[in-house]
Amino acid sequence: MQRRTFIKQASASAAALSLGGLTATAQSYNRIIGANERINVAIIGCQRRYGGLLDSISKTPNTQVVFVSDVNQQRQNKAIEKVAKVMGQKPQGEKDMRKIMENKEVDATFHATPDHWHAPGSILSMQGGKHVYVEKPCSHNPAEGEMLIAWQKKTGLQVQMGAQQRSSLESQEIIQAIHEGLIGEAYHATAFYSNNRGRVPDANKIPVPDYLDWELFQGPAPRTDFIDIVGDYNWHWYWRWGTAETGNNATHEFDIARWALQVKFPEEVRVNSAKNHFRDDPWTMYDTMYATLKFPGGKVINWDGKSRNANPTYGGGRGTVIYGTEGSVFVDRGHYKHYDRDGKLVTEKVSGGDEAGTALGGGGSLTDRHVRNFFEAIRGKAKLACPIDEGSISTNLCHYANTSSREGDAILKIDPKTGKYTDRKIMKKYWGRDYEKGWAPEQA
């Protein structure tokens, strides 16, 4: 089994990393793993998304899942058995991801944790010399995105965000055609998502179950009492841990819209947001949002997000419509359609693969391709489809929309060169977050 090489820091002034007890005094160096070497993987987080990731990992030659980690012992035990069945080898289980980051046998980590752990966990991985596949959104706030980019640059490791539509052959094909002038000058995109999420059960403060490590679940987030509904999926709807439906799903479509229009940071963001359904349930955020992001050069991206009304406004549950001076394109995970300026269908192409649309957990052929791309990049055979510097920008669009909503649908001004809020009070309040003492991620 190949062991990763570490360069020991000789200088006493070398920065050590510290996050809730993990300490390292070595800087990783990026070794390209050969085509015939096995890549040892740890899956961090064994909730809904890990199954799709495991399936994709299992289809990639010369890979092995050697660790699974979850703060819920019951979930972790089930994951150990599932990995053994799928991969043919039983992995180790370790509820504390920090111990895995210290293990030099692990080459890469897949992060499918709650959102508040995405960036801190990924930073720990890079500090431990591991390549990173982090689910979207890659950060809980814009400052964490900056840290991810800085650590990637410092270590030279491969860091991919799980925006798997970037690996779609059909999406790559039609976006390239748009860039080459298929619809003239692309100036506007509407990204959308529609679902019919139900009522969130009443939240009850109860003793922490003996199978759950509540301290590790909270990790970098400020401490609070345990409530019985957050352990599986409903943590998404609390700002302490989640990033709302925009972070949960708009990340994908924002990424496609931004890719198509070839834009980075907006200069203005405004939203209309509200909680329109089950207003007495413990969902603490908006469930409906319409956002407008204006970019330099007059380009615009709209986001139409409906968490609890599955009306297929644009002909499906999710996707992106791109408008140009000579036509338009609809693209989602399964196909694309090209229309002329009269609205007449010119070309349609349907993918031969499969990929979950609005279903919880995801998985399918796009995830297969995205995971394979990640491993090929580690081996030096490909460039990442969604490297962290791109993923972080797309994630920031979600953070901007969320900030506007949290400020009463305030109009936000953004510096399009830096991506930062121009209002100092907004910067101070929303660019980063408060961390539990001893759990803040280290700066690169």
From TrEMBL:
Domain called Gfo/Idh/MocA-like oxidoreductase N-terminal: residue spans: 39-162
Position of the signal peptide: 1-26
One example GO MF annotation: nucleotide binding
Sequence ranges assigned to domain Gfo/Idh/MocA-like oxidoreductase C-terminal in this UniProt record: 233-409
Cited InterPro entries: Gfo/Idh/MocA-like_OxRdtase_C, Gfo/Idh/MocA-like_OxRdtase_N, Gfo/Idh/MocA_oxidrdct_glycsds, NAD(P)-bd_dom_sf, TAT_signal
SUPFAM superfamilies: Glyceraldehyde-3-phosphate dehydrogenase-like, C-terminal domain, NAD(P)-binding Rossmann-fold domains
PROSITE patterns: TAT
Key words of the record: Signal
PANTHER family in UniProt: BCDNA.GH03377, OXIDOREDUCTASE FAMILY PROTEIN
Protein name per the record: Dehydrogenase
Species name: Phaeodactylibacter xiamenensis
